[in-house]
Every structure is written in C-alpha cells, then in structure tokens.
Amino acid sequence: MAGSGHQARPAAPPQQAEIDQYWVRAGGNVETQRVLLTYEPVQFDRLAAEIRAIQRELAEVVEVAESDDGLIVATVNARGDLMDLELDPRLFRHPDSKALSEAITGVYRSGRAAADARAFELTMRQLELTRKEIQK
Q1: Tens of pLDDT along 113-124?
Q2: Is pLDDT above 80 for 127?
Q3: Of 9, 37, 76, 125, whose Cβ has the fewest other Cβ atoms within 10 Å?
Q4: What does DSSP assign to residue 49?
C-alpha cells in the first residue's frame, strides 16, 4: 500500500527446478542451459572490461585545431566541449569582430570534427567487439 510505510518484498528467485522446467518447455536442453549460464559471465566480464577501457579512451579524447595563420588555437574534447581557446594578441591589430567570430567558430568546428572522428573510431571499435562476442 502506498503511504503505509511498508515496502513490497522482492519476489523469491526461482528454484533451479523451475528454471529447468521453463527451459525444457521452451525447447532447450537443461544441460546446455547450465553450460551457457556458467560460460557467459566469463565472456561478458571480458567484454565489459574491454568496453570500460574504450570508454576511458573516449573520456581522454582531446583534439587541437589551429587557424591557417596560427593565431587561433582551440582544444576540444569528445563531447564537443571547448576546453581551451588561445588567441594571439596580433588578432586585435585589425578589430573586426565578425571576422574574428567566424575564425574562432571555424577553428572550433575543425577541432570538434577531429574529436568526433576519433570518438567515432573508438565507438565503432566498441561495437565491433560487442558484435564479435554476440556472434560467438
């Protein structure tokens, strides 16, 4: 009951005999099921470790882009966050806010594209690992 201060008890886990009966009714072999249940965690543990490693690499992706003249440098991470922006003081000799804005945006987009490409490579590697494990 809601508001009564009582919490519902979780259902008891099914007994092995119930699991076996369900598996056989579904057309499976009880021994095959037991082998699968003991084998799969090892595969998934290894896969999970590989995925965590790729995710750590993803978190470390940082790309640096520079304007053609080297006066603007943008550092962008895999999420597209602008981590750092360096503006050479020579940029301010010819004050043109529109040109400066366009130049900064262009350098940022280059950095973002490079970070996206690296993140895409890592993500595809993760998907390929997962696909191979599922097909085993």
Answers
A1: 999 999 999 888
A2: yes
A3: 9
A4: H
